[in-house]
Design a protein that fits this description.
10 helices; mainly alpha; globular; about 290 residues
Length: about 290
């Protein structure tokens, strides 16, 4: 949510209220999916590359939103929790080591919240340091290399779990991570948490898992075979969005959605400017009178 506002020019007014809470996993995921739809609608500059690119992104978001509403993305066992502490920015760069190379602390906890268990079950993408959407050899090569690295990581994790007596008789995180990777839940979680990588992840790793294979092998063209999954109202909405986005491509407007602190400071500056203008006018009037 924070990234969509800071980097994607999504108006803050589109976010859930500050005091909003979610009692189920599906309700939270549905809210995030809806924000991705709003993001496509509101982002003015560089939101789409062409009319077909706009259609491809619209269809991906609508079908993903449909999956969230139908509660098909995750098994129902953790629908009502437990919701554990989760940090979106937990990665090697934020781990501090001492001179003996032992962990001394972890920083940057400002993006922490209670999250669905599936977030914790997904293996950490940072095992390869580089995110999949930035991997030079492409997503499939990232998957191949990550699978090999994950085996090592889970083996070490199982050893730690064996050494902790309190873990006996409980669900082990290593088992959950293995299942998340093998089932494809890892990619669902990744798409949810990384909005700017959503389109590539959806078409290459999510779409065919839930909606079946396509005749084309080109992920950029698969959307054409999913058009019939939209109803008439959605197709009309898509074409209206395409028309608007093409118009916006020729009129690059600087978007600014200030937070409450910036807005307060702006009003204070305007107030000072008005007071100074009145003082200047009063002095001019006084000089004319003299």
């Amino acid at each position: 949510m924070n990234e969509l506002v800071q980097l994607g020019t999504l108006p803050r007014s589109q976010l859930p209220p500050l005091d909003a809470t979610f009692k189920t996993t599906s309700s939270y995921i549905e809210a995030l999916a809806q924000l991705n739809i709003q993001h496509l609608a509101y982002q003015r500059n560089d939101a789409v590359e062409s009319a077909d690119d706009c259609r491809r992104k619209f269809i991906a978001r609508q079908l993903f939103y449909q999956l969230t509403r139908d509660k098909k993305l995750f098994p129902p066992c953790d629908e009502n929790g437990p919701f554990k502490l989760w940090c979106d920015d937990l990665r090697p760069a934020n781990v501090l080591l001492n001179e003996d190379m032992h962990i001394a602390g972890v920083v940057d906890w400002e993006f922490s919240y209670a999250a669905p268990a599936e977030f914790s079950y997904a293996p950490p993408w940072w095992l390869l340091i580089e995110k999949p959407e930035y991997w030079a050899q492409g997503l499939e090569d990232w998957t191949r290399v990550f699978d090999r690295r994950l085996k090592t990581f889970l083996a070490a994790m199982r050893q730690c779990e064996e050494d902790i007596a309190a873990q006996q008789g409980k669900r082990r995180l290593s088992h959950q991570m293995q299942r998340s990777w093998e089932s494809g839940d890892f990619w669902v979680v990744y798409a949810i948490l990384h909005s700017f990588a959503f389109d590539a992840i959806y078409w290459q790793k999510i779409d065919q898992r839930f909606f079946g294979p396509t005749e084309t092998d080109d992920p950029s063209e698969a959307w054409r075979e999913r058009l019939d999954l939209l109803d008439e109202a959605q197709r009309c909405e898509m074409e209206r969005l395409v028309e608007r986005k093409l118009e916006e491509m020729g009129d690059r407007v600087l978007a600014w959605d200030p937070d409450e602190y910036t807005e307060e400071f702006r009003h204070e500056l305007m107030k000072r400017a008005e007071e100074k203008a009145k003082e200047d006018q009063a002095r001019e009037t006084e000089n004319v009178t003299k």
